[in-house]
């Protein structure tokens, strides 16, 4: 038997309460009980998003909601700015180009943050810009962009700010309304603690005005149709929703409410700090800035002389621990610990211990226990339950 641990930044482990909810008998999506569940999920998501804006729910992976945030906003030939800091920033570039936008690409070295001053400059040079696309947590590198600063800049212009918060929402503080995020995309399978399959968008009034002017063809992802059905007297989705995942999301939101959003963020801060300190104590360099708010993913450089492709494979096949490798051009160069969602102190210790063993097997000079010990010293100080 191989005991398995899912220590990746999506999918993430699902709490037992949520698994139990998933096993409930399927209810009909036109029944009053489903309306209650949808209403509760939307209210719960507004709590997590810290928004009073509309929140739409789709049965889709996160990329589906990203695509919806292009087809509902951008007409062919419209100017958009994409600030890309990694693999998922490249996805914004591909999507906006695919749908015919004129894209001003601000491309940053992977492992660095987008510079708000560049966005300000690009907006001044292209006053016709309709939307600015950016990631909150760039999962491929662990970097978290300064959305508050970017939001302040975009809010002063007619453009709207579209943020992919798929791996950040519910892990790191993101004040959708206060920071001027007009469209915020999320997915169920990260810090929201549900299996993959649900995607969300929060849409501001400023963004709705843009949606109204959008002529791009769309059907399943039509936000106007979704809003109409979801905000009617008996809230429903236009098409058959992922009923069981919605029931599960409701249970997961209950757990987030019980813990309290501030404690959820604080738990992630301590887990992130413990992971980073553990890695550093092993003499491994972090990939990207040592940022106290970057708490969904810890990205680590593969030490010289170690075959990067083998780290995650050995951890998975010999020790049952799923870690994440590098994506795109970082393949083989970094490995990543995920710690967004249903993660606690013990997960960090398991992951760190296995990384010590794996690196030693791959020829790295490991001081056994150094990473685990450093993580333990951080975790013991946490004022919140981990
Ligand atoms: C930041 C970010 N954006 C987009 C995606 C794509 O989401 P999905 O794989 O659910 O389509 C992911 C998934 O890893 C992500 O982490």
Report on this model:
There is one protein chain. The chain is 41% helix and 15% strand. The strands form 4 sheets. The protein has a 7-stranded mixed sheet, sandwiched between helices. The protein has a 3-stranded antiparallel sheet with strand order 11-14-13, covered by helices on one side. It has 2 domains: 16-257, Type I PLP-dependent aspartate aminotransferase-like (Major domain) (Aspartate Aminotransferase, domain 2), CATH 3.40.640; 260-379, Aspartate Aminotransferase, domain 1 (Alpha-Beta Complex), CATH 3.90.1150. The longest helix has 21 residues, at 261-281. The model has no long low-confidence stretch (mean pLDDT 97). Strand 3, helix 4 and strand 4 (102-107) form a beta-alpha-beta unit. The chain is built from 13 helices and 14 strands. The protein binds pyridoxal-5'-phosphate (PLP). The site of pyridoxal-5'-phosphate (PLP) has 13 residues, from helix 3.
Radius of gyration: 21 Å
Structural class: alpha/beta
Cα shape: globular
Q: List low-pLDDT spans.
A: none
Q: What is the average per-residue confidence, as pLDDT, rounded to a whole number?
A: 97
Termini separation: 28 Å
Topology as a string of helices (H) and strands (E): EHHEHEHEHEEEHEEEHHHHEHEEEHH
Bound molecules: pyridoxal-5'-phosphate
């Amino acid at each position: 038997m191989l005991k398995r641990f899912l220590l990746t930044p999506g999918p993430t482990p699902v709490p037992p309460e949520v698994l139990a909810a998933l096993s409930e008998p399927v209810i009909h999506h036109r029944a009053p009980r489903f309306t209650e569940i949808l209403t509760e999920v939307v209210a719960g998501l507004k709590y997590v998003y810290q928004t009073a804006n509309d929140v739409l729910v789709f049965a889709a992976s996160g990329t589906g909601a990203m695509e919806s945030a292009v087809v509902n906003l951008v007409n062919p030939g419209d100017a958009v700015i994409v600030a890309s800091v990694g693999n998922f920033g490249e996805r914004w570039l591909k999507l906006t180009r695919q749908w015919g936008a004129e894209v001003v690409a601000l491309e940053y070295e992977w492992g660095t943050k987008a510079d708000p001053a560049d966005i300000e400059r690009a907006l001044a040079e292209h006053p016709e810009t309709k939307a600015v696309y950016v990631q909150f947590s760039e999962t491929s590198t662990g970097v978290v962009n300064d959305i508050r600063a970017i939001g302040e800049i975009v809010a002063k212009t007619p453009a709207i700010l579209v943020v992919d918060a798929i791996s950040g929402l519910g892990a790191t503080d993101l004040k959708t309304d206060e920071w001027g995020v007009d469209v915020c995309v999320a997915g169920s399978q990260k810090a929201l603690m549900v299996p993959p399959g649900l995607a969300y968008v929060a849409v501001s009034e400023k963004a709705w005005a843009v949606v109204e002017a959008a002529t791009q063809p769309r059907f399943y992802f039509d936000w106007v149709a979704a809003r109409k059905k979801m905000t009617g007297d008996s809230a429903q989705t236009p098409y058959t929703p992922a009923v069981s995942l919605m029931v599960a999301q409701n249970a997961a939101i209950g757990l987030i409410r019980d813990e309290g959003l501030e404690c959820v963020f604080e738990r992630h801060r301590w887990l992130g700090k413990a992971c980073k300190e553990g890695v550093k104590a092993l003499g491994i360099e972090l990939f990207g800035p040592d940022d106290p708010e970057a708490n969904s993913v810890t990205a680590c450089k593969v030490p010289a002389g170690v075959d990067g492709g083998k780290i995650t494979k050995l951890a998975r096949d010999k020790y049952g621990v799923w870690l994440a490798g590098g994506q795109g051009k970082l393949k083989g160069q970094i490995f990543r610990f995920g710690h967004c969602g249903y993660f606690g102190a013990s997960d960090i210790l398991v992951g760190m211990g296995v990384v010590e063993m794996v690196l030693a097997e791959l020829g790295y000079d490991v001081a056994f226990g150094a990473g685990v010990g450093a993580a333990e010293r951080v975790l013991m100080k946490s004022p919140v339950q981990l």
